[in-house]
Structure formats: structure tokens, C-alpha cells
Description:
CATH class: Mainly Alpha
Distance between the termini: 58 Å
Helix content: 40-55%
Shape: globular
Largest sheet: 6 strands, mixed
Order of helices and strands: EHEEHEHHHHEHHHHHHHEEEEHHHEEHH
Strand order of the largest sheet: 1-2-3-9-6-4
Number of strands: 11
Radius of gyration: 23 Å
CATH architecture: Orthogonal Bundle
Amino acid sequence: MDQNSQSPHECPVPFHGGLVPLHGGLPDQDPGRFYEGLRRHWGPIAPVELGPGVGAWLVMGYQEVLELVWNERAFSSDARRWNSITEGSLPENSPLLAVLGWRPALNRLDDQAHRRQRRAVTETLNGIDLRRLRSAVRQQAEALVDGWATDRTADLVSQYARPLVWSAFRMLVGLPRSEERRLGALLGSIAGGAHDAARAEAELTGMLHRLVAAKREVPGPDLTSWLLAHSAPLTEAEVAHGLAAVLLSGGESTIGWISGTMRLQLGDARLDSAVATGQLTVRDLTDRALWDGSPVPNIAGRWARNDLTFAGCRVRAGDLLIPCLAAANTDLRVHGAQNLGSRAHLAWGTGSHGCPAKDVARSIAETAVDVLLRRLGQLRPGVHAIAPPRQPSLWSGAPDELPVVFAPVRPVRPNAAAGAPATSTVMGVPAKRKDERAADSGSKPPQWSWWNSINGW
């Protein structure tokens, strides 16, 4: 029965049976087909179960997702409103809390508190020299390809996208190289909704708190130091949780974007030819991939501030609503009208809570794809490459693997170690905040303060 034909009182009420289970890997068999089936039956919004006994609304319509993320008067980002918590139906160790639980980070705050952190994070990210970032990413990408250039086969997820992205984000936040592998593992557990996601989130937070404390003492050319120096000002807890939000939203989505772009290119000979002849740019190809499959299928939800009717359904105060970007981007009301290269997709969210790291993600993804297309001749999909196996996850669109075969190529720098640190940084080192300078005005100015004038901050 089509929900659009029902009155609000005829819609099934969440949390009381009749929910569509989203746990156990059901939508991961064929996400596009699964979401389309839900939309045909329920319309743009469906009652779902995120975990045993944990109900929510899955918002799948393009216009409805826009309304959900833009209407901050009706919908809150503060998980403390969640009735699954207040009514005691959500276990304290639920893996859902790693993504949806409250924390003092910009993606889980409303109103002035959100705007204050959003400004600090956005202005800090804007301080990244994207040209130098692309150069550093290209250096790392070339080294990774060199590592298996003569093997004739590679997995573009585990041997390329993941190590490349985590190398870049580790550098951006200022973590030591020794933490890189652990950083990727922790974020993978959180985004993948693993059973130990809550433990992984706690360990990640501890890692970032230690980083923030270290950068407070000795600032460096990284996001952490700039957030600490911002005029907001931010507490160390806010900086740590803000970094976690950037890493989770920016890192995992970039991995999904790279692998999704390559999967699209491998599966369509026309795209392959168009790129090879210059009719289609790498930017066009990566934009098309965002329509084809969102790197982040669903984003952290919103909670109804009051009882209301939304998309024809009765929604209670405290109900969780999940914006399903993967479904919204295939909504026939908009998808049929999009042109190749259009950026009207919702892959990064939208509104004041849209992903603040999308320019960083674009720089990394486009560089990564460009290196692969330029370096690898006769690139062909390996087993499962077009429809690769995936672990059940509501929050990550990246496949587990993306095997390819190719003609062997000559390494560019055969003696260079994959993963060698970049030869240059992509940010300067911030000067101390005014309040900190006043506290030690009698001390000698720090030697690193000249970066402030060079970078115009």
C-alpha cells in the first residue's frame, strides 16, 4: 500500500511493530534495489528498525531530505532528545551510539553552539593549501602504485584508497605516523557499525584528546593546532570531538568516493573511452560517481523537536529521522533531470550541517583517481569488482574490496617506500591566541609565529 495515499492517522506508528529491519545486512545485498522497493511501498519516508527494538524513520525522498536537514526549527541534531534513550530502549553499549550518540561536536549541536564550532572548523579547513595538499597526495599515490605496479593485479580499496586517505587525514590532523594504521582501523569500525564500535569510538576519542593536549604544548602545521588557536575559543574536548567528526565524515566518505568512481569507470566502457579521449574530465567522472552511489549512504540523523506530521506521517517528539542520501540521489523526481557533472546531489549533505571537509575530500579523491587512470594501462575489473561484497553498514558506502587487473607498468620511483612522509606540509603553524599571548607576555615570542603573517591569518 502506498503511504502517499494514506491519511496521517493511517501511517504505522514507529516503535510498535511493523518496522523494516536495517540491521543484519539486508539493504547491503543491493542497496539501490532495496531503497527503491521501500520507496514504492512506503513513499518518501519509511518506518525502520536500526537495531533490535530501536525504531526510526528513514527519509528517502530528495525534497524530504532537504526539508529534514534545513528545517532546524522542527528538527534537532542533539541526540539527547532521542526517545530511544529517554525511554530506555537503547542499550548503553549499542554500536549505534558511536555515530548517533551526543558529544560536544559541531554535527551533534544546534543553534549558537553549532554555529560557533562550525565557524571554527570551516575557517580552519579553509586554511589548508589545496594545491600543496594535492601535491602531497599525488606523491603518496604514486608511491602506493609503485608498490604493486608490476603485479598485474591489485585491490584498489585495501592497497590504495584506504592507505592513501588515512595518510592524508593523519597528516592533516597532526597525528604521528605510528598512529596511522590504528586510526584507519578505529574509524572503519565506527563507520562499519561493528559490534565493538562503541569501544572504537572511545579509543579514538582518547587518541585525539592526547593529540590535542600535545598540540596545546607544541603547536604544529595541522588542523588541531589551528582549532586550538581559533578565536572561538574551543575547549580541548570540543577540538577532539570536532576532529573526530571531520575524520569520520571526511575520511570514510573519501574512501567511498575513490572506490565508487573507479567502480563506475570500470563498469562502463563509454565512460572509460570518454575519459581516455578527453571528452570527460576526472572531475566530471567523480561528480557522476556521487550520483551513482553516495559515499555515505545515510548521515547522522535528526530528532523531532515536537510532535508533527512529516511527509504524511505522524512523528513523535524525540523520534529519530535518518536522511538517506543514497535513496534521495536516486529519487526519480530529480534524478532523471540531472546532467552529467551536476552537483545537485546530496552526497555531502546540505545546509548548515553539510560536510565541512568536502573540498579536502574532493582534492584527495580527484588526485587519487587521476593517478590511477594515468598510471595503469588496460585497467580491467577483477572478480567481484563491479558488484563487490560489502559488510553491513548504514554509514559507509565503500566496498570491502575492488580488485582490478592491468598491464604491468614501470615504477616511477622504484626505490621510494610507499607511505613515505610528504616532503612539505599543507598548513602553517598558528600563532598563539591573544589571551594566551597576554598570559606569557614577558616570555620570548615563539619562533614559529612568523607562519601567521605568511598565511594571512
